[in-house]
Amino acid sequence: MENRDKIVVLLAGGRIVQRHEEHDNPELTDEELYALLPDDVKSHVVFQKWSFQPPSNYSLRMCADIMGMAAGYIHDEGARGVVITCHIQAMAELAYFADLIWELNPPVIFTGSIFNAGTQNSETALRLTQSVRAALSGACTGKGALICIQDAIYAPADVLRISNFNRAGLLAFPESPLGVFSQPSGDYISLRFPRHRKVMKLHAQIARNIPVISASLGDGDVVLRALLDKRFEELDGLIVSGLGDGDVPSTWVPLLRKLLKSDIPVVLSSRYPDGIVQATENYEGSASQLLEMGLISAGMLSPYQARIRLAVGMAAGLKGQELADYMGSK
């Protein structure tokens, strides 16, 4: 098999493997990609193409398909690991989803770039080389899904996006990296292990309709009321992104009670990038009251991590306290 003992680079789009032209964003050919890699790396690589979708078209079901392909390269074809290119706008969420369900020892590493291939600041050769070196090193084995960015390897649960235009500030990392490269394209040096993670087996299709609704200062209930009045029956779940501790306007309380009576899981998160749900005060719309009502705490998860985690937990068949326990861990 052509993929046996190779690192499969699954091209799922992203500027890292696409040139920017006036009316199109054509992808690099395999020949162009191989030409960018050092000789000691290119012999270990096989490129495979997947649908080049814009990040706004991604769904969690598409993400599940990508991970099924990645697992197939290892299970069925004997690949040593998989590197996945994708658009930087979707990379943190896609990698976080992958980390929740990736049960294989060989690594799956996501990488991308804010710059298009072929531009003056292009990082295509650097990121692809680093990702493959990390996958080959053996140090990433058994660590789940990973992200290769900014000359380091990170656990997806530790990644927060803070900018869409600054190369150095594209991602913020509450935790230190799992490993770094001795030189920009040199050897991979492992620094630490990621925190323990619970890997889930999916027994049903990933839910499509789990919106995130965010509270803000002086906010009303128009959006939440419209959602419940017009599309209530289509909801699979809801993520409430509350102020700081998880508080919401008092007018949201009866609407959320209505949702809870229909057995639709409602998860409460903090809108802060590095926030945590805290039951510190007790008033109408406070996190304390909402949790007593039956909303599920997302703990330290961001609203977007909570959405992905809820979808995975539901597809794994979790309900009630099991689902609440799963949502409360990072």
Describe this structure in words.
- This protein has about 325 residues and is an alpha/beta fold.
- The chain has 2 domains: about 5-190, Rossmann fold (3-Layer(aba) Sandwich); about 210-325, Rossmann fold.
- The protein has helices spanning about 30-35, 40, 60-75, 90-100, 125-135, 220-230, 250-260, 285-295, 305-315, 320-325; strands at about 5-10, 45-50, 80-85, 110, 145-150, 150-155, 160, 170, 180, 190, 210-215, 240, 265-270, 295.
- It has an 8-stranded mixed β-sheet, with helices on both faces. The chain has a 4-stranded parallel β-sheet with strand order 11-12-13-14, sandwiched between helices.
- Strand 11, helix 6 (about 220-230) and strand 12 form a beta-alpha-beta unit.
- The longest helix is centred in the N-terminal third of the chain and has 16 residues, at about 60-75.
- The model has no long low-confidence stretch (mean pLDDT about 90).
- In CATH, the architecture of the largest domain is 3-Layer(aba) Sandwich
Percent helix range: 25-40%
> What are the low-pLDDT stretches, counting only 5+ consecutive residues below 50?
none
Beta-strand percent range? 15-25%
Q: Based on Cα principal axes, name the global outline.
A: elongated
Order of helices and strands: EHHEHEHEHEEEEEEEHEHEHEHH
Find the CATH superfamily of the largest domain.
L-asparaginase, N-terminal domain
Structure summary:
By secondary structure, this protein is α/β, with parallel strands linked by helices. The chain has helices spanning 30-36, 39-42, 60-75, 88-101, 124-137, 222-230, 252-261, 287-293, 303-315, 320-327, and strands at 7-11, 45-49, 81-85, 108-111, 145-149, 152-154, 160-161, 171-172, 179-181, 188-190, 212-214, 238-242, 266-270, 296-297. Helix 8 (287-293) links the parallel strand 13 (266-270) and strand 14.
